[in-house]
Structure formats: C-alpha cells, structure tokens
Design a protein that fits this description.
The complex is a heterodimer of chains A (about 120) and B (about 110). Chain A is mostly beta strands. In chain A, about 0% of the residues lie in helices and about 50% in strands. The radius of gyration of chain A is 13 Å and the shape is globular. In chain B, a hairpin with a 3-residue loop joins strand 5 and strand 6. Chain B has no helices and ten strands. The chains are: A mainly beta (about 120), B mainly beta (about 110). The interface between A and B is medium-sized, with 24 and 24 residues.
C-alpha cells in the first residue's frame, strides 16, 4: 500500500524558514515524480511544486519561486520542501502527492494527510 | 498559465439526484491531462478521474468524466451521501499545474 506521511509543520514568524518532509513507502520512490500542493484555510487547492523521479527537473508556482526549494533523497524515500522568506499568505495545509510517472506531468495519486504551517508573529 | 474556471460554485442537491460539474479552460490543452479530485471535509483530496474520462482505481461508475474542446465535465449519476464534498479539476499538461476553484456539492 502506498503511504505518504508529511512532517515538519508548525508556527513560524514572517520571514522565517521551515522544511517539510514527506516519507514515502509502498512503491519504488525513484520511479515517480512527486509534488507539493497547498490549501489555505477555507480556500481551494494550489499547486506549489513538483520534482521528477530522478530529481533532475523541478517546477514551481510563481508564488513560491525563489523562496521554496523542492528536493528528494531517493535513498531515503523522502521528499522535501525547503521554505524560506515565509509570508502570512503561505499559511496553509501542505500536501505531498505521488505522480503516476517519472516525469512531473502527471495526475496526483495518492495524497498524504497534510501538514499545517502557520506564518504569524 | 492555464486558468480553470469551475461552475457552479455550489450545487445543492438531494441524494439520488444527478450532478453535472463544469470546468472550463482558458486555453486548449490535450484532454489527456485533465484530472478530477474529490475532497471531503477534513480529508486530503482523492483522485476520481484522470485523462478526462478514466476512472481511478476503486471509483464507482456513477462518476463519469467527459471533454469537449476546452470544456470538461464531471457527472455524478446518482448522488450517494458520501458524494457530498468539494470537487476540483486540475490540468497537468503544462506547468504551472493549475487547479480550478472547486465546486461544492451540498445536501439540499
């Protein structure tokens, strides 16, 4: 069974940094692209970033480009999202999700349970 | 960036009724790259449909997806109590991989 377990959320001050992890199991991690999607309180889904199976290709939403960095450690079956220069509008539940192919151009299935980040002073 | 506009914002229906949810794209892209997700309150989204019309594993056949040009439709033939949720469309053929704003299907 595919499992994705996010961790690393919490309360952080504006301008601060945080790193999320997503531990994957139940599939050959390096064979699939992975993504981060967020959901602000009471709002819809917003794609944040994706990374190919090898880690060689990364993609970002304009809203996070230059501030967030997606990476993966295929030896540890773990996906990461390094978030810097955090803003109040980054407050959201962050989900990691598995793609169906090595490339990032794929639907997301399944999703993790999400981890919450609150950016506030 | 491809903008996906979902309508209506909210559908108020009774169990057993049918639902038709629309997702309109701001520009053409291959129907191979459109997905629908269901999100129940307090839960992570769940894949329903990919490639516009292919049901994901375990999704009942009362869920049907279709495409015509830049218009995509999710049809639920007979609403079950567990179908009352928010539904999102998403395109994954062009980065940024955008989502629609969602349609909430609520109990009337």
């Amino acid at each position: 069974e595919v499992q994705l377990v996010e961790s690393g959320g919490g309360l952080v001050q504006p301008g601060g940094s945080l790193i999320f992890s997503c531990a994957a199991s139940g599939f050959t991690f390096s064979s699939y692209a992975m993504s981060w999607v967020r959901q602000a309180p009471g709002k819809g889904l917003e794609w944040v970033s994706s990374i190919s199976g090898s880690g060689g290709s990364t993609y970002y939403a304009d809203s996070v480009k230059g501030r967030f960095t997606v990476s993966r450690d295929n030896s540890k079956n773990t996906l990461y999202l390094q978030m810097n220069s955090l803003r109040a509008e980054d407050t959201a539940i962050y989900y990691c999700a598995k793609s169906n192919t090595r490339r990032a151009f794929s639907y997301f299935d399944p999703w993790g349970q999400g981890t919450q980040v609150t950016v506030s002073s | 960036e491809i903008v996906l506009t979902q309508s209506p914002g909210t559908l108020s229906l009774s169990p057993g009724e049918g639902a038709s949810l629309s997702c309109r794209a701001s520009q053409f892209f291959s129907s191979d790259y459109l997905a629908w997700y269901q999100q129940r309150p307090g839960q992570a989204p769940r894949l329903l449909i990919y490639a516009s019309s292919t049901r994901a594993t375990g999704i009942p056949d009362r869920f049907r997806g279709s495409a015509s040009g830049t218009d995509f439709t999710l049809t639920i033939s007979r609403l079950e109590p567990e179908d009352f949720a928010v539904y999102y469309c998403q395109q994954y053929g062009n980065s940024p991989f955008t989502f629609g704003g969602g349609t909430k299907v609520e109990i009337k």
